[in-house]
Amino acid sequence: MNKILRQIYGVILALLLVAAGVGLQRTGTITLFSNPNSYSELLRLLWQHLYLVGVSMAIATVIGLSVGIVLTRPKFRAYTSIVMYIVSLGQTIPSLAVLALVMTFLGIGAKSAIFALTVYSLLPIARNTLAGINAVPSSIIDAAKGMGMTTMGILWQVEIPMAMTVILTGFRVALVINIGTTALAYLIGAGGMGDWIFTGINMMMTDKLIAGALPVTVLALFADFLIEILRTMLVSKGLRLTEE
Amino acid sequence: MGTLNFILKNIHTVLFLTWEHIYMVGVSLIIATLIGVPLGIMITKNENMAKKVINGANIMMTVPSIALFGLMLPVLALIGEGLGKVPAIIALILYSQLPIIRNTYVAIKNVSPSIRDAGKGMGMNRWELLKEVEIPIAIPVIVAGLRTAAVMNIGIAAIAAYVGAGGLGVYIQQGIDRVYPEMILAGALLVSILAILVDGLMALAERMLTSRGIQIQKRLSR
User: Are residues A4 and A111 in the same domain?
Assistant: First the structure.
């Protein structure tokens, strides 16, 4: 029974792939991809996209991690709920609205796009860092103290490794949202793959539309996969075993 | 100030666009609930299936919204619906699935077995158990999933203006095209306010739908 089902799945998958291939051919996407001129254009846009994602994510990770860590220190614990309230309010605001708001104040260009993307990606990272560190059981911290570890030692060797899974989840959410929002950055003049998507929609050029939308989708799925690999590298083996 | 004037001067258009926005999000949320909640309940019986369904919804969520509109456009164009509200509503339904299914699944799974046994002991059948015990206990978490979906959908519906779906995103789109800051600000602010408002209302609904007994229990355990 299972074997038959699997064969049916296989056939359906193959048919879907063929249909997708025929669709790509019919809409002229394959011709567009194989044209050397558009090929270099694609690489340029993809590079622009990755640049926007990379820079904004790097800044957001540094700020988000530090904000999250600082807020778990006893001195700043009192501000936790207020900051978390602001963060969750910020996440409620739609990405397009954030881009539009930033544009009206900072004008068009890559700088304002990076600013908006950074602010928007910062929120999930900060929230998950805070939640992850706060969820570390106090008994483990006590054990570390009993072993004579300093506060810094506890942070780097106990709290952060323990919170890594949750931090990475926040990073993943931020990264996937970031890649999708960067596709909108074209609207405020920052380029990226959104260029082809919006040109395709506006001019009803299906080939350009698909040639823009497909790489962004693949990029987002690839980023998701990358985080999974990162997880096996950064989360300690013992924790991974208990999770499974 | 200019933005406020702009909104007041165009109050009829503003109200219409807001209505359009709410309509899109509302319709898609209702359809998504009708698909997602039964699916979420169904997969609690089958661990293997649950993993597959949630993984699938997760992958769906990863696809950037504007890319999804782009990929759906040529397909839906075959039936003459490439632009407009249809692709927008389909996308919104697809994106809502992950929070709704996941929350329903987790909530029903977390109903403690002793409560379920008590229900069985009272002679409830499978359907009564679901209706009288499991769903009332799970409803706050299910509504929390709907809340996440609704807030997210308001943001995606704004992007849908670019495929001609209307809504408040139209102000952002046209404002950017015409370099008209008041219009952009009006669109961005109204969408944000709508999202924050819906978030608050759903939080209220979450609290109101929690049964009295659970509320008291929560207060006591605090």
Answer: no
